[in-house]
């Protein structure tokens, strides 16, 4: 899939999720090189602990704003806890509370190799 389309769709989703209880604290596209699949990792606001509620809000938001993110579906999004080693590592060296487009390539974060990624927000 076109990386630019992924980034734009992810940025639009984060922007719209800011108006929901999910309000992402971290959002990052991660490419799993063994399968070639991109997943949008989202660490939601502390108030959202129930994964079912998280996915319901994400699905509703994608559906409501589909023209802004035509290549995105709820299956592309993954609920991620802030205690994941990659997330902890990202929070220690990048603080980007707005919406950004920071490409990561061939990086190891807290001992976890990330072949390709695009950071959209890091506000932990």
**Residue share in helix:** 25-40%
Radius of gyration of CA atoms, rounded to a whole number:
13 Å
What number of structural domains do the residues give? 1
Separation of the first and last Cα atoms: 29 Å
H/E topology pattern: HEEHEHEE
CATH fold group: GMP Synthetase, Chain A, domain 3
Q: Which residues form runs of ≥5 with pLDDT under 50? A: none
Quick one: overall form? Answer: globular
Number of helices in the DSSP assignment: 3
Key terms:
5-stranded mixed beta sheet; alpha+beta; 124 residues; GMP Synthetase, Chain A, domain 3
How would you describe the overall organization of this protein?
With 124 residues, this protein is of the alpha+beta class. It has one domain: GMP Synthetase, Chain A, domain 3. The protein has three helices and five strands; from the N terminus they run αββαβαββ. It has helices spanning 3-17, 51-64, 85-93, and strands at residues 26-32, 37-43, 77-79, 102-109, 112-122. Strands 3-2-1-5-4 form a five-stranded mixed beta sheet. Helix 2 links the parallel strand 2 and strand 3 (77-79).
């Amino acid at each position: 899939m076109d990386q630019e389309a992924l980034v734009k769709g992810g940025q639009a989703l984060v922007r719209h999720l800011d108006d929901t209880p999910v309000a992402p604290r971290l959002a990052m596209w991660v490419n799993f090189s063994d399968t070639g699949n991109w997943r949008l990792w989202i660490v939601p606001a502390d108030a959202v602990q129930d994964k079912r509620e998280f996915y319901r809000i994400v699905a509703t938001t994608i559906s409501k704003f589909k023209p802004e993110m035509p290549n995105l579906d709820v299956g592309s999004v993954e609920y991620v806890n802030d205690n994941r080693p990659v997330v902890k590592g990202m929070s220690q060296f990048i603080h980007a509370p707005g919406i950004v487009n920071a490409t990561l390539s061939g990086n190891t974060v807290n001992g976890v190799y990330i072949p390709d990624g695009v950071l959209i927000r890091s506000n932990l």
